[in-house]
Design a protein that fits this description.
Order of helices and strands: EEHEHEHHEHH
Strand content: 15-25%
Structural class: alpha/beta
Radius of gyration: 16 Å
Low-confidence stretches: 70-74, 148-153, 155-161
Number of helices: 6
Shape: globular
Distance between the termini: 22 Å
Amino acid sequence: MADPKLNKIANCDNAERVGDVIFVHGLNGDAFGTWHPNNKTDDQNSWLYWLGGDLGNVGIWSLGYDAKPVAWMGGTMPLADRANNILTLIQQKKIGDRPLLFVTHSLGGLLVKQMLQNAVGFGSPKWKTIAAQTKGTVFLATPHSGSDWANWFSYIGVILSKTEIINELKSNSSH
């Protein structure tokens, strides 16, 4: 399983930037393709770069992490563990000392909610700062109450070797 990666898109090295925006993809998504109108990963015709061009004093980042629904496509890890993993990555990149905004798609929204819950509940002082500096989250197609699709998929998942994340996405899951 690959480690998560925060990809620098625009203005990330600007010491005078006034804030940061982190894009977080969802289930079976990609750090670049999710935000591209044609799901491409090899050009800059996407939300990420458009926003970076419009907001020269804001760091634009895109998070990449394993979020595959079935094991033969790749791996994943439980949401709470992945949240801690990404909080550590954000801390290492020294993000969170200035205002922070997340733009999320699907599972990415659940991941960010878990990150903030972990940061406030039992995180390090730096994690608490990240949570305090989070000024907003944009949720795009986030299944806040779970997904009926995940319920259905869990039945055939025995054949397809579903990943742990499918259980956490079921409708009315405790997560």
